[in-house]
Each structure stands twice: as C-alpha cells, then as structure tokens.
Amino acid sequence: MRGKDLLRELQRTVDELAVLNEIGKALTSSLDIGEVMHVILAKVSELLKPSNWSLLLKDHATGELYFHAAVGEGSDRLLGLRLKPGEGIAGWVSQHNQPLLVPNVHADPRFASRFDKASRFHTKSILCVPLTFKDRTLGVIELVNGPRDGAFHEEDLRILGTVAEFSAIAIENARNFHKVQELTVLDDHTGLFNSRHMKRQLEQEVVRATRFGHPVSVIFFDLDYFKRVNDSHGHQAGSQVLHEIGRLLLKTLRSTDVPVRYGGDEFMIVMPETSKDQAVAAARRIGGQIARQPFLADKPYGPIKLTASLGVAAFPDDARDPENLIRRADEAMYHVKASERGGVFAAVSPKPPERTGTLTAGVSSEP
Questions:
Q1: Is 0.85 surpassed by the pTM of this model?
Q2: Which end of the chain is more exposed for a tag (fewer CB within 10 A), N or C?
Q3: Distance (Å, rounded) from C-alpha 261 to C-alpha 190?
Q4: Cα 2 versus chain centre, distance
C-alpha cells in the first residue's frame, strides 16, 4: 500500500472513530428518537456524504414501514408515507433483516419508484441497513446517492451497519422511556390521562393563557346512574364501560384537548384556547354521543344506554386559578345532576361590581 493510500485509510479510521464518539454522546444526551437520530445521521452524513437519508420505523401492528425522519432534496414530501411489508429496497431489508448495497436502483426490481415521484427526486444508488434489537427489526436507515451522486462502497456498508447497531439501542431506549412515561400519566382502564398529569397540564395552560390573553375551558362530567351497571352486571362490565368512554373521547376530541379520568366514573377535559361558549358546544356534542353509544354491545345483556351530566367553566371568567376552575366546573356538573341529569350547565361568571358615584372597593363573589 502506497503512502498516500495508507494516509487516506488512517484518516478514514480517525473520522470513523470521531463519528462513533459523537454517536456515543448522542445516546446519553437525549431520549427523543427524532433528536438522537438526527444527531447520529448528521454525523454519518459528514462521513459518507449521501445526497439524502431517511429513517424508517416499523409499525409492528401492520408490518409497514413509515418515514419517521428524512433529510435532503424533496424529503419533506416523504414524511408520513408508508411502505407495505416487503415494498422497495427498504421493505426488503426490513423483511429479510439484511443490509443491502444497490449501486444502480433502476437495474434492481425491488426498487419502488413511487417515492421518487412523491419527492420529485432522482435516486441512483441506495445503501440500506436494518435497525435490529434482540432479533427484532425496529426499522431501517437508508442513504440515497453517494458523494457527487456516485455509488456507495462495501466499506460504507460496514460503517453504516455499525451505526445501525448504536441507533437501534437509542430507539429501544427512547421507546422504553416513553412507555414508562405513559404508565405514570395514563389511566389503565380508559387510556386517558390521570388526574396527576391533568393538574400539571392545567397549571401550564393557565400560565400560558395568562401570558397570551386567551381562555382555557374545562368540562367536568360523570355518568348518570353508573352504579346500576356495577350492581346489575358486575365491576368488569363497569370497567368495560369506562374503557368505551375513553375510546369515545379519544376519537371525538381535538389533539390539543386533554381528556382525563378524574376518578371513579368522573371525567374531565382541559380545552386550551377555548371559550366557554365553544366548550359548552363541545360538551353538548360529547353528551349526545354518550347518549347514542351502545355500551356493552358484545354482552348478552347489552347494549345498554347511559347519559352523562356535564359542567363547564372557563378561565378567566369563572376562576383565576386551576383549583377553583375545576371546582366551578364540578359545581356546574352537580347543578345538572340536581335537576334533569343528562344535560349541560355552564358556571355563571361573577358579576363585576356596579359603578357608583363614590370610590369604593368592589368585592367579587369569586373565591
């Protein structure tokens, strides 16, 4: 080996070690999959210099791959797109759990050209490796077009394979952390947030609302005569009803809303940037959907019908802090339960003091 070639190989080894060192730092710096992978693949890009790169993760429910991150020309058009099991180079790598170096994609029948059409990009060569953790494929890393649109080499495949091992560990760690987080904030029966998480979230929303001058509304409701379900059909039936309520809310509400199982058969919804009138309309819609829902339809004694009593309160009209906001919505709910049940009632905002001819301090009826 000539001196220049030896020097080039030594420099390449130094660059590889530098990349692996940076990857090691990234693994310990964050538990966000996107953030870690962007750091890792940015370092890989410095070394291997692809035109584009993508991280595709596997949806284990369907076996499909989806673009979780993509960088390069036209890559923003790929985010969210899915590959059927085995589709394209990436699908083959995921399905067979084997790396693949394709110097000319147009000579390979496995290449799926629809993604070039979607991104308006011209793919020439692909380097793709699986992300594997304990014999389980988590996804793939795909590099597209080598330096100056040339092909990749076997040495590039070796380096990317090493990076993929680190990346799989990072993804698995992030997912496990996310699962632990879910266990601490989610209710087992309903899949909704628990009251501990709600209190933190509501405090943050009230701070934001105070700063930016927008309202925050709360809906508080419980199921009418829910005790009869437990008494007549057992607590397992009651648990299933709660689960069905959770699914109904998750399907109905906006992504910005915070649905909560407050306790027992009591539920609460935090609605950021939502006026009282808007929250009342949402409460009526939710109450109507609950009344129409055929609960326990799969049981011999089902389906059964239920109604809910819903109370609404808004910040800052009805209360100036999270604790009193919840209390006002709870009181509004009990106003419904004391009358007809199955309805909606909004907290009555305290009236401002009337102006008089003398300078006197007004006292609000709000606690």
A1: no
A2: N
A3: 7
A4: 54
